[in-house]
Amino acid sequence: MEKVVIFDLDDTLYKEIDYLRSAYKEISDFIESEYDKREIYEFMISCYKAGRNTFAEVIREYNLPISVDYLISIYRSHKPNISLDCDTQFVLEQLSLQKNINLGILTDGRGITQNNKIIALGIDQYIRKDNWVISEEFGYSKPSSEGYLYFQKKYKNAAFYYIGDNLVKDFIAPIQLGWTCICLLDDGSHNIHKQDLSIINNISSLYTVKCLRELFEYL
Q1: What keywords tag this UniProt record (predicted)?
Q2: Phi, psi values for residue 64, rounded to 5°
């Protein structure tokens, strides 16, 4: 039977904290170059770890004549310095070689941001662009079923799989639609969205894996 394997992006195919670090480096380089300031990156990371408003704090601390919105625009539009880990690259390579498997991405986020991430990660080598469902471009975000239904309408009589990490919103719709759902557990690398594992006990038909290589047991 044909299989359709759809991945979430952030904290599933790569660690979103790596994107944050990349964006902070871009912003700190800009500030240091433009305003002759120093140790910006370290300050921003300390603000993030303390749960403070990083952009507002860096503007205040260094008395910068720029707005929070301007820094946010750099954050969202920069070309990130991120990469796939070896396990993820191996899994995508192997799955993309299977003639009966179609790969896709279903992710929430802004179009420019998520497209830049996908290209920087090299995921476009394995998943063609018409199978990228990005919420801002698509018009619906999770937990809406519309993104999942897009793939069901595109691929008839297939077995569907969704791999994600967000227990609050990733699996509601695909479970209702009868998909096989697999949650990638946080490996301790500080996922942006923390997992409340107690939720798992209340979700039926949800499998968990500690690394993406374990997906082959279910596919």
Answers
A1: Hydrolase, Magnesium, Metal-binding
A2: -90, 140
